[in-house]
Amino acid sequence: MDNDAAHHANIALHMYLTGDYVNLVDNGHDYLDKPHLHFWLSAFSYKIFGVNSFAYRFPSFLFTLLGTYSTFKLGSILYNKETGKLAALIVASAFGYLLANTDVRMDAILTACIIFSTWQGVLFINIKNAKYLIGTAIGLALGFCTKGHLAVLVPAVGLFFYMLQKKNLKTFIDVRWLLILLLFFIFISPVLYCYYLQFDLHPEKIIRGRTNISGVKFILWNQSFERFSGGAFGADSANDYFFFIHSLLWAFAPWFVLAFIAFIFQVKFFFKINKEWLTTGTFFILFLLITFSRFKLPHYLNVIFPVTAILTASFLLAHYQKTGWSNIIRVIQMISTSIILFLIALINVWAFPVPRWWVIIISVLLLAIVFYYMLHKQIQSTAKAIYISVATMILLFFLMNTNFYPHLLQYQAGNELAKKPGITNKEIYFWKDVYSSSFSFYTKSLRKELSSKTVEENKQIWVITDERHLPEIKKQFNILQQIPQIDYEITRLNFKFINPGTREKECTQLIILHLQKK
């Protein structure tokens, strides 16, 4: 999808097509925002599988498996094996965790690295084995090379609370933490060196209106602080102090209510009972950071999904046999899943009706499984709540991937234009201020903006543009052929677009033009 996913895919595409794995290049310009790992992995995947959406998503999927396994292992250490297994099931069925493998950004890789390094760090604290020291450093470094400081901050917070709970001062001053720090810097040195080559050696480069930019200083210091303060990245939802709550409500669906209750219980008995502090401390500190950050996006919450899943799993198993709580848990999940089922019906029956018979048949079978668990009287209440929730999420993402997204992508003009016969054989230029990352990705080409030199050298040219520029184009060129395609920014849905009756009015057009100079 356009914006982040296709945008990141094209930075990796530039590496793949040019063989330049040092410089981060975005639409012909130096890119100073995120480190290299996600782009390196995607470009390497292109070499194996070709340039396609599977290749772009595959590294994130592998890291998701690592993250889910790490959640299981950490939950097993903090509580027991049953808690670990349930935590893995909860995180693997959370909406935002699954979405990170559909609309792929850095989040799946980052989340996996964070929970992996936390797990390895806990093992190092408990066992003091050198392999866990190395594992911690690798996890921290891979996370940092994906998205910067957050990959270090979250595990550090969790491990701090874990050591604090153990009340062992020697653990805090263990000299081997310095060895982890040394290994961390050794492991991130390829990224630092690439930033040095791209930016520090070229102070003349203009980045966001400034020169003399140090790439090394940016990634080691500026990046996360600029985001936290709003800085160069704007201040989206800066004053929304309930952002964490209402975003987690859907991002951690269908488990959010139980997660919040579990957190309250952990806080209530924080000092009274020998509770583990790692998950509670991480959840609370990240809650504060996101609440007071001036740049907020929902996918920033992904990094706390694994610890939140462990927190939720421990609460569920602690109250599994308590009749009163067991029934409350069942009712909460029945309500949560009923809301999701209503939205599934709204989207796949009214907004985007399912056209394929095999999708309908499988959907009916999956829905039958949901109702089987809902109506079965012999299943214990808490178990029923878990089964219903997981079955509902399987149904939801089956329909999202087989019906909702295929429908939605028909309204993203870039990928649809790339499918047109003969388009990939033409050299197509972008009109100024017109972008379509999905078009570039699916044509396996780098964006070329139309220049006056190109116009002078060619009597006829192919151009991709939007409706805004048609009057200007008609003054300079004769239009020999038009290939229009309906267009909408599908990552920013609103009700008028979802509504079939008003959808067309919300859309614009992206157009490929065959032009001849007048």
The amount of helix comes to: 55-70%
- Counting DSSP H or I runs of 4 or more residues, the number of helices is 24
Q: How confident is the prediction overall: mean pLDDT?
A: 93
Tell how many strands the DSSP assignment holds.
6
Q: In what order do the strands lie side by side in the largest sheet?
A: 3-4-6-5
SSE run: HEEHHHHHHHHHHHHHHHHHHEHHEHEHHE
Which structural class matches the secondary elements? alpha+beta
Q: How many domain units?
A: 3
Range of strand content: 5-15%
What is the rounded distance between the termini? 37 Å
> Judging from the principal axes of the Cα atoms, what is the shape?
globular
Set down the secondary structure blueprint:
Elements (H helix, E strand, L loop, with lengths): L3 H15 L6 E2 L2 E2 L6 H13 L3 H26 L2 H12 L2 H5 L7 H21 L2 H18 L2 H17 L2 H4 L3 H25 L14 H15 L13 H9 L4 H13 L9 H15 L12 H14 L4 H29 L5 H19 L5 H29 L3 H6 L9 E3 L6 H6 L9 H6 L2 E7 L3 H7 E11 L7 H4 L4 H4 L1 E10 L1
Parallel strand pairs: 3-4
Antiparallel strand pairs: 1-2, 4-6, 5-6
Helix pairs in contact: 1-2, 2-3, 3-4, 3-6, 3-15, 4-15, 6-7, 6-8, 7-8, 7-10, 8-14, 13-15, 14-15, 16-18, 17-18
